Amino acid sequence: MKFKDLKFKKQHHGGIGAAVDFNDITVSIQAGQFVYSTPREDLLDSSMYSAFEVAIIDKEGRYVTEKYIEDCSDGEVSGWTSKETIEELLSNLT
How many helices (H) and strands (E) does the chain have? Predict the structure, then answer.
């Protein structure tokens, strides 16, 4: 899977987001005013962002982001994650 294959939709937080299920985890990629993205604005298209907030959650609902992204900002989510890092993550998971 590639970054361009993600289907971003408007989210309740005002920004946009996409979620993808892989075997035993879900990868959530978000951008907007109230998440750790660049810019921190509510825009309508993923091409308008250079970095995203990424969370990886297992089937029990636990955050396991730090197992997949080295520079996980707080143990639960990886803030300001570049498209390149997301692309690498998606490639490694498929």
Answer: 1, 5
